[in-house]
Amino acid sequence: MNFTEQLWQDIQPIYDAILNHGFVDELMTGRLPSATFQYYIQQDALYLTDFSRALNQLAARAATADDSLQFTQFAQNAILVERGLHETYFALYDIQPETAKMPACFAYTNYLLATTSLQSVAVGAAAVLPCFWIYREVGKYIYRQAIRENPYRSWIDTYAGEAFDLSVTQMLALTDRFAEAASPVEQDRMRDAFRMASRLEWYFWNDAYTRHRWLV
Ligand SMILES: Cc1ncc(CO)c(N)n1
């Protein structure tokens, strides 16, 4: 079993909790209230901007030009996806970009920025991997079951699509290569980072589902 396959085994309970979450279920059936999706998309626009920054941070710190190029391409893509979501859903709902990050978005983006800045590139890569991998698996899971005329079709097609699939495959190969060169201690740090970011994925859906806001 390669390193990333082990990572996936580690987060199986978290992944199951995500698949069974009301947000994912209602996104799939199209019954998710549009106010809930609006909250999600507004937070996700803020998320993707920082996700891109985190990837650029890894690009700047990568040891080789090839790795740098790979990370800058991911970083660029995150912004392009964000723009695509903007054009579709911000216009559809006639909503404005949100400027305040709610708790899960705040925690997740700050975690990614801190980890990609202060930990090794290998640990940073493990921290950004769930954003790729979990979305691909959730996207495909939803795609298989979703009805055609789903209001969230554009979102589903983005994450179940071929372009996203390719980027995930590349990111997995990169992570496995970093893990091969990493010491056992460093590999443990990678596992911890992967698990933490996976948990924060669950929190991100959960904040959207409950339309959670700062309580104080
Ligand atoms: C919170 C979150 N994680 C991952 C992705 C996919 O890049 C996304 N758009 N939003």
UniProtKB/TrEMBL annotation:
Transmembrane segments: none annotated. Coiled coil: none annotated. Pathway: Cofactor biosynthesis; thiamine diphosphate biosynthesis. Residues 8-210 form the Thiaminase-2/PQQC domain. InterPro entries: Haem_Oase-like_multi-hlx, Thiaminase-2/PQQC, Thiaminase_II, Thiamine_Salvage_TenA. Keywords: Hydrolase, Thiamine biosynthesis. Belongs to the TenA family. NCBIfam families: salvage_TenA. It is an enzyme of class 3 (hydrolase). Catalyzes an amino-pyrimidine hydrolysis reaction at the C5' of the pyrimidine moiety of thiamine compounds, a reaction that is part of a thiamine salvage pathway. CDD domains: TenA_C-like. Its EC number is 3.5.99.2. This is Aminopyrimidine aminohydrolase. It catalyses: 4-amino-5-aminomethyl-2-methylpyrimidine + H2O = 4-amino-5-hydroxymethyl-2-methylpyrimidine + NH4(+); thiamine + H2O = 5-(2-hydroxyethyl)-4-methylthiazole + 4-amino-5-hydroxymethyl-2-methylpyrimidine + H(+).
